[in-house]
Amino acid sequence: MKKILLLGGSNQQIIAIEKAKEMGLYTILCDYLPDNPGQYVADKFYLESTTDKDSILKISRDENIDGIIAYASDPAAPTAAYVAETLSLPGNPYKSVDILCNKGKFREFLKSNDFNVPTSNSFASKKEVFDNINDFKFPIIVKPVDSSGSKGVTVLKSEKNLETALKSAFSYSRSKKIIIEDFIEGKYSVIGGDIFIRNGEIDIWGLMSSQRDTGVNELVPVGESFPLNLEESLLNEIKYTLSLLVKKLHIENGPMNVELMVDKKDKVYLIDIGPRSGGCMIPELISDIYNIDIAKMSIEASMGFESDFKPTKSNEFFAIYYLHSSKYGILKNITFDNVLEKYIYRKCIYKKQNEEVEYFKDASKCLGIIFLKFQNYNEMAKILKNIEDLIKIELI
Questions:
Q1: At a CB cut-off of 8 Å and minimum separation 6, what does 74 contact?
Q2: Suppose 213 and one of 74, 91, 222, 394 were both cysteines; which one would form an S-S bond, judging by CB atoms 3.0 to 4.6 Å apart?
Q3: How many other CB atoms sit within 10 Å of the CB of residue 347?
Q4: Cβ-contact 102, 174 below 8 angstroms
């Protein structure tokens, strides 16, 4: 029986463990959290940090694995690539994965390869920042070079709260480095979603419009909708930019989570590109849209298996929405208006009654996810515009 090592056992990663077992693979899981739910699904579990490359490499050698995957995990992606490259297992170049998972290195790569990129610089101390802050024009965005899920990210319109923003960014950075860059004023909403690469070409285009709840946190997506409502020429420019990135980084197979923006002059900017599937069940939504199985395809890529997926895009319109709270408390109930209920085709509720709820400061504070389906774009746009009024989250 072939063995696969999976890095991360959260609720959203269990689908990969279950899929691997369904495919007849022996599943070995590593996670640093002793209470992760994936350990009860996998065949074997190691309590180990997924960012500790040497420890994961030792486990991989001891277990004589045939493949390794960091499903929906940015921090673990470089580890998976490092182990795969060291052991000559299927995977993408470690150097490329490392670039994509470090915002400072990624910005330097974009600059040196003539992509559009905002003014940016990386810093290792607060003093460096204050010595160079005049190089930037407000508004600016401050973020860790190596975090995901919008953790430690702040937009500043002036220098007033810079000290607080720096403290937050440094606290979320594993390498204790941050990046500051000019904030791009977008012409459209942020473009997010996943793409899937096979044999060096992008086969699946799961590009979506990101939705924000500005009354809670303007930086963290609260939903995604498909397809993009953009003119064809701009959509082609976005696809060209992503295809060029894949080529220059020599990415051969597997999923990528993407975040882009288009400024008011229609210039396309690559904001964040993760060498893995997106979190918040985006792969499941794309699987529904294209009638495929992203989890299975991702595992096949990590094992070097040939994949015979044949996407057939639905003519319907899809959206995903992340249930969230604007304050802390104890969950009493979550209810959905009848107007919304008829569009919901799947619910994944993480929190139960009487469990603690936290303010939606990053994606990890999500209470659950709902999947929606519509017959036309206008119907979808109308519901999503008012969706916060159609969901009631009661706290004690």
A1: 101, 147, 148, 257, 274, 276
A2: 222
A3: 13
A4: no
CB-based contact 55:289 (threshold 8 Å)? no
- Predicted confidence at residue 215, as pLDDT, reads 78
Span 114-145, pLDDT tens digits: 999 998 999 999 999 999 999 898 999 999 99
Tally the C-alpha atoms within 13 A of residue 388's C-alpha that lie toward its C-beta: 12
Q: CA dihedral in degrees (239, 232, 283, 53; nearest 10)?
A: 20
**Predicted structure pTM score:** 0.90
Separation of alpha carbons 54 and 139, rounded Å:
40
CB 391 within 8 A of CB 334: yes
How confident is the model over 253-270, as pLDDT tens digits? 999 999 999 999 999 999
pLDDT at 217 over 80: no
Question: Average pLDDT for residues 230-259, to the nearest whole number?
Answer: 96
Q: Are 59 and 80 in contact, with CB atoms under 8 Å apart?
A: no
Of how many residues is the chain composed?
A: 396
Task: Give the separation between CA 252 and CA 200, rounded to whole angstroms.
Answer: 4
